[in-house]
Amino acid sequence: MNYDQIFDKAIDRLHEEGRYRVFIDILRNKGKFPNARCFAGHNGPKQITVWCSNDYLCMGQHPKVIAAMEDALHDVGAGSGGTRNIGGNTHLHVELESELASLHDKEGALLFTSGYVSNEATLSTLAKLLPGCVIYSDELNHASMIAGIRNSGCEKQVFRHNDIEHLEELLAASDPDAPKLIAFESVYSMDGDVAPISEICDLADKYNALTYCDEVHAVGMYGKHGGGITERDSIANRVTIIEGTLGKAFGVMGGYITADQKIIDVIRSYAPGFIFTTSLSPVLAAGVLAAVRHLKESSEERDAQQANAAKLKSMLADAGLPVMISETHIVPLMVGDPVKAKKISDILLAEYGVYVQPINFPTVPRGTERLRFTPGPQHDETMMLHLTTALVEIWGRMELEFAQAA
Predict the structure, then answer these.
(1) Is 248 a catalytic residue?
(2) What's CA 310's distance to the chain center, in Å?
(3) With CB atoms 3.0 to 4.6 Å apart as the test, which of 141, 352, 371, 374 could cross-link to 333 if both were Cys?
């Protein structure tokens, strides 16, 4: 058995398909985001502008967050000391879970080390505890949700993206006595569209199903207090489990679920992804706690981000660039080819000091490769004009198709 040959072929396939991933060597400049320093391929650090961070509201740079983390570091040290089963609940974990439960109007919350883990651990555990459970999964659900459903070993039914009629067809064809769980996201991060949550909940009521809503790209971003689409639309009480991340709009790291206390207790007691994992550092918990509390009271960051996203969409469209229609803060620019998407990204970084990562398969379907821009509150009009001008020049240089005459 030639192991090296097998691994070489696996990597070669990625190169041949134009989707071998290269990670940028970068340091963000504290207090000056979206400015950062790029180290790869340069004689010393090069100043760049970041256009693809999921720290949507720049809370990872917020003075309150940084101060809270510094205070926690000096108060309790760096780590949590182990799993919560062994090391106990750091009081900051307790406070943060209480704050998150309140944010989503739920009885309880449970912290995980990432949004991926919270999805995988919860979905796989919940379905295993429900004999004969059938999970109905939106076809564009995140890889972590797919992994959790697969690891549950239960029957899976995939419904067409945001297609309520197809979902009802699947529900109606199933055993009426079988436990059912509908899993979906609120904001889909690659297209920027939103799930019809009320209609999904109507079907859940009709067919006696539980609902699981991944709000990772919406928490902090929507709703009066940052509770996501479910808060914005006043339907959080209709969703059984709301899952979120602490690493995007809240700017730090971690994941969580919120639900009634009985479900939280079940997941806490049975999910290997929670039981056997060292708990989130109290330093991180302190930072997130500060971010959540701030965004519960402040809409300034949300308003500025939404305004900048709308402005960038308009500028790209006016320039004739193929910006995809999006009702949210996500600004996708269609390329449709992995090699070209990577080349555009490389030129932007090398010649214009603009960083945006190409999005390729398996994150998006083949043939829909794109650049995904996430303008934040600090991206000003000068930065947007620089980006738009650069893209127009590159589109012309590479003889790519414009959406209209530029």
Answers:
(1) yes
(2) 20
(3) 371
What digits encode the pLDDT tens for the residues 128-165?
Answer: 999 999 999 999 999 999 999 999 999 999 999 999 99
Three-class HEC string of 11-44: HHHHHHCCCCCCCCCEEECCCCCCEEEECCCCCC
Which tokens is 385 given?
């004009």
Query: Are 48 and 353 a contacting pair, CB within 8 Å?
Result: yes
Amino acid identity at 30: K
First to last CA, the chain: 56
Q: Does pLDDT of 297 surpass 50?
A: yes
Active-site residue (options: 248, 262, 296, 340): 248
Sheet strand arrangement including 241-245 = 108-112, 255-259, 241-245, 210-214, 180-185, 134-138, 155-159
| Token representation of residue 207 | 């067919």
CA 127 to chain centre: 23
In 146-240, DSSP assigns E strands to 155-159, 180-185, 210-214
pTM (2 decimals)? 0.94
Q: What is the pLDDT of residues 86-136, one digit of tens each?
A: 989 999 999 999 999 999 999 999 999 999 999 999 999 999 999 999 999
pLDDT at residue number 406: 41
Q: What is the 3-state secondary structure (H, E, C) of 74-107?
A: HHHCCCCCCCHHHHCCCHHHHHHHHHHHHHCCCC
Both tokens of 6, joined, read: 């097998």
Q: Residue 373 — φ and ψ, nearest 5°?
A: -100, 140
Q: How high does pLDDT run on average in the chain? A: 95
